[in-house]
Amino acid sequence: MNKFFSRLAAAGAAAVMSVCALGAFPADAADEARTITVKFNCLDDETISFSPKIDPNEVFANVTTSASFVQMPSDGMTKKGYTFSGWTYDGDVAYEPGKPLYFNVLPEDVTEVVLEPVFYDPLADKINVNYEFDKEIIGTDLEKVFGEAKAFPGQVLTPKVIVLSAENATSYAMTDGTHVFDGNNSIIMPDHEITLTPIWTYKINVTFSAGDVDRISGNPSVTFSYNEGMPMELAGADRVARSGFSLTGWVSSVDGETYLPGQSVTLPHEDVVYTAVWTPIEYTVVFNAGTGKSSDNIKIKGLTDTTIICPENNCEKEGYYFDGWKYGDEVYQPGDEFLILGAKPGLGIALTSVWVAGTKPDTEPTTAPPTDVVLTDLPGDANNDGKVDLNDAVAILQYAALPGKYPIADELLVIADVYDPGSGVNGMDALAVQMLDAKLISALPYYPDTVIVIDDPVE
Length: 459
Description:
Number of strands: 32
Shape: elongated
Distance between the termini: 50 Å
Oligomer: single chain
Largest sheet: 10 strands, mixed
Structural class: alpha+beta
């Protein structure tokens, strides 16, 4: 038997095992809603005798149900010269007395099943049921467990199946090349020998990887060994932790699909890597005013790896002056950008006010550049460094927020006024510089009535 068939049969075995594990519970919503009538075709056969202890019209009456299975009658019957063995609806698959017929093995359009009794001749010659093993079995005495097996032609046969282990492989089912046996299902023994071989499921490596990212807590990847084609639940959202991000999915290296944490999947027949999908957390960054009043605190929302602008602290504290916002070892001034790098799970982000005793010293604003510096002639070059980039946008934003603390020389104010020139330097000029840097516009100054056309870089 080739490996391709082996894998298909393994999938079938897993499905059969799942059905048997359901017991009396419906297999799925479709089966639950379907009503099926089961008939036992034996009452009108004059060659069949029934025990006087039972009422055959009651025991073998038609059954109409929307349950997921019907139990075969356990009471037997006799027929001269033959032994009763079970029931069949197709002359091939059979059911022992007392065993269930699960409806989910039937086609969806079937609404009626007629079961025929199965008899065999106990005086016929028995036929060999062979068990062959193509691998070296670990931990099982094959001769003791399987030994020599025989069955009568026409007898209901339930092949013996146990879990078998070999190097890097496990068998949960066996096959005769046509049927898949899991130890619970049966066939009618044909009039010739049959040979049963294990269906092997092989070990594969299943790796959960955080991906090529930073700020990972613990191991960036972990690998487990599982049987191919078997069901399993993917690792939960708490399996790998990354500061500032939530784990919202796993991308399979085999099919490229994204699955949810904890989702049930069927493992492929090859090694697979599930790579984490990270989603930035939205934080409410708290700027603690340090006055003892929560109403004085300032809260600004932002996503991990984005920046927010540090606000002014307009509160007063007698005998002290405000000198910035502290986070870790860094002190930020109003107007500075604060990069949200995230926090460990369960923690927030807060900056505290720096209060210094005394009176804030006066600072002399710079109103003109040094006389030996040549002024730029590039529109938007607010810091006079000979180029226009995001540093100029920051300089303009700081000036717009705190012109006394972050002055721009008068000669450079004309150059910085690039959004609707003549309207004065404000945050819109910083926006125009950012638009230039992002290549949304091709030149400065920018006039609000200009229509921006963005070429799609991908044809």
